[in-house]
Amino acid sequence: MAFNWQTFRTRALTAIVFVVVMMGGLLWNRWSFFLLFSVVHFGCWIEYQRLVQAFHKAYGTILPIHKYGVMLAGWLVMLYFANTTFVQQSLWLWLALVLVILILLADVISKRANIINW
User: What whole-number distance in Å separates Cα of residue 81 and Cα of residue 92?
Assistant: First the structure.
């Protein structure tokens, strides 16, 4: 396979744009950091859920509160560890814990709790 300059230029330009966006998000201010990692967090969760559903068809039948609640709980834990000053820091962890309990209750009430036993 020969070296393709056009592909190399395209990938190099994409990498430069990626580095500029990441460095800007990391170094500009607290809000750009928050926005960057929120987008990365939710994007990764959506991609993860698509991959899991491709391997386990039953994953597509879980409740939306479970699917999106896990995303939100992870985001709240991220806020807790980011040491934000948006609100009292321990509030994020408590909200995440309450959300996880609500997700489990919703699964039990809907009788879909057996999805955990794949």
Answer: 9
* Helix or strand run (H / E) with residue 9: helix 5-27
Check: CB of residue 23 under 8 Å from CB of residue 74: no
**Highest mean pLDDT: which range of 6-10, 32-36, 101-105, 112-116:** 6-10
Over the stretch 61-71, which tens digit does the pLDDT of each residue have? 777 888 888 88
As to burial, measured by CB atoms within 10 angstroms (0-12 exposed, 13-18 middle, 19+ buried), residue 15 is exposed
Q: Half-sphere exposure (CA, 13 Å, Cβ side) for 116?
A: 9
